[in-house]
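Aim 2 progress. For Pseudouridine synthase, the working sequence is reproduced below.
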Amino acid sequence: MERLQKVIAHAGIASRRKAEKLIAEGKVTVNGKVVTELGTKVTPSDKIQVNGIPLQQEEQKYYLFYKPRGVISAVEDDKNRKVVTDFFPHVEERIYPVGRLDYDTSGLLLLSNDGEFTHLLTHPKHEIPKTYVAKVKGLPSRELLKKLERGIQLEDGKTAPAKTKMLTADKRKGHSIVEITIHEGRNRQVRKMFDAIGHSVMKLKRERFAFLTLHGLNAGEYRELTPHEVKKLKVLARTGQC
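Predicted structure tokens for this construct:
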């Protein structure tokens, strides 16, 4: 279920603020009844009219995108930097990122126009595993990696337990490649975790989101999720199993 004003905005009728005004003015009906309460939630099967004109709700879309570095995880940017939706010029629906990846981080990002789906996959309590590969300065010891695994204190609180795996350690070049899996989505979390143990991230890529991978995609490319994948993600978020 999604808020009525959001559904109206996604259908391209008006901005969300304008949609709220239309609702407050009694110009919107749901299943034949005038609705003026802004918190009203509707389903895709509800019949909505705006100024007496039936609303055609968008078909729900789900995409897996390989985000390049130097791209904003947003639908617009006030500094005119490239955003993820710039890579979807032929998609008519108003899709938006499910969560985010930092500007300098590449890798797997989902986009959709399904608000419930987005909430399920981004709410911390659902603990969706996200796996990153980080190129870090120096050669972190096993004990330091164990600190990340147990959870480490950051400015906004202690992180949840993580999983780590040393992939390569290059003594000559002075850097390492470490795989880390977390279940949270705090701002720049992986980078801050490695900063906290004295091994700053030089390059970061999200390789996996739950059971999804980037297999078959190059940076800047995307594919639609299959109905089965969408169902598995929802089940995973709700039950912890898929």
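Helices lie at 4-10, 16-24, 115-122, 142-150, 189-196, 227-239. This observation will guide construct design in the next reporting period.
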